[in-house]
Prior knowledge:
Layout (H helix, E strand, L loop, with lengths): L5 H6 L4 E7 L4 H16 L4 E7 L4 H9 L7 E6 L2 E7 L4 H21 L6
Amino acid sequence: MDEINWEDEVLKSDVLTVVDFWHERxxxxxxxxxxxxxxxxxxxxxxxxxxxxxxxxxxNRRLAISYGVMGTPTLIxxxxxxxxxxxxxxxxxxxxxKILDDMLQRHRDCIEKSTPLEI
Length: 119
């Protein structure tokens, strides 16, 4: 995932989208990665998970800066192109599942009450 496909993959997504801002030298990111993989399988079809390596390119760094990412890992939750939540740092799978369930409810509310963004 990078800034080139950001609009299509995140801002225009019709499902709750979780963006994982990470990098390969972050030990907490590496610990979170398999948990994200498991959750992506468990929530398949309901939640889209995408990863942005903040050290991979200047464009990815710009994306992170534009969304206020100050540390990794940072998970930002999007509904119809809007931020509906954010989590910074590592957390156990069960804690993250509770947050995802809450975000799914927020996503339903967001979709019901949203008007399209002009992108």
